[in-house]
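User: I'm putting together a small comparison set for a docking exercise, and I want a reference complex before I start. The sequence is below, and the ligand is LLP. Could you produce the 3D structure with the ligand included, as structure tokens?
Assistant: Of course. I'll restate your input first, then give the structure tokens for the complex.
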Amino acid sequence: MISSENDQLISSTPVYFYDLNLLEDTLSAIVTASQSKQQFVHYAFKANSNKPILNLILKYGLGADCVSGNEIKLALDSGFPPSSIVFAGVGKTDDEICYALENEIFCFNCESIQEIEVINGHANRLNKKAHVAIRINPNVDAHTHAFITTGVNENKFGIGVHQLEAVLELIRVSENIVIEGIHFHIGSQITKMYVFRELCAKINQINAWFVKQGIQLNHINVGGGLGIDYDFPDVNPIADFQHYFNLFDQFIVRDEKQRLHFELGRSIVGQCGSLLSKVLYLKEGISTNFVICDAGMTELIRPALYQAQHQIDNYSSCNSKTERYDVVGPICESSDCFGRGVKLPLTKRGDIVAIRSAGAYGEVMASGYNLRRKVESIYSHQSVRSAIQNFSVN
Ligand code: LLP
């Protein structure tokens, strides 16, 4: 058994494996691509909120994008400065709003007129100023899965453009509200860059409207959504951040004092995580053969919920013959399937399969359905391939 310093052994499965070197390389690509352009990135905590991951993200100077009081608390406890924290979400509770006000976070991304009224009321009572950005629904189709599309008219997110005049009137009479900016987030796993150009065009119209109303916004927050390559994680382990940040820099018309903010989640942590699972059984079916794993939709729900396809590798088999399998979990649901017709080296009981690109929206979405135990995580400075090849699993 080989173990490099600081690496944890793969002692039991299912387990989330995080390649911290890849995470650092990703963070450093982000810093290089964004820093010189008055662009600031808040990491979307909802994608993965494990401590060692947050620590690295903090080390690279990113801020925090939170969607609950608990996420704000975790951000503060982890050392993220309050001035780097944005708070989003359509359903902020009164307690969460007060907590954020007391801690003087950078900005609330407000999603309805009533929410602005409520925030103003609490801010008044607490004798605080609430700094807000208006989350606007720009009606731009992200061309991604319907469940992770957030910026078209039928979505619950953001305030419609038709309500902007009413919003401004309200803000003008709300003494404890300070308008800082506008905020957008049209969806996740966006792989078509023209979508972001369409977003920029809408943002320019809206920003110009604010200028006409005599309001100079300090920042424009374009949200997150940059997709990752689930098909070829080894070919494209790091998203094309240069292209992404350049695009916004080039296509958003802004005053030199206006800063651009981003809220990236998946593109930061997605590729560094893999779900490792032991093969429990092989079963010959009528139309297909099954690899039955000890991980299921309780550990990674993305395939069942969004029909997501994650690459699956069996690095523990040295067999040069390959076979096609349906790779499934132990949960009593037919949607508990990680992939159909997956080509793997001849696989046997006890092999370890890696379900790749699972660092974002994997562990955080795990559930206790079927009374499953909480999935654990390990951190490494080597790739998932070498870790599996180097470590034996009990
Ligand atoms: N900002 C807001 C307001 C968001 O709602 C989200 C994600 C982000 C930023 C970060 O987006 P990202 O850069 O990660 O695409 N569970 C789904 C994804 C849900 C995304 C929710 N909002 C999945 O597994 O695909």
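Residues 20-270 form a domain with the TIM Barrel fold (CATH 3.20.20.10). Residues 44, 47, 65, 88, 148, 185, 188-189, 223-226, 263-267, 302, 306, 360-361 surround LLP (CB under 6 Å).
User: Thanks, that's exactly what I needed.
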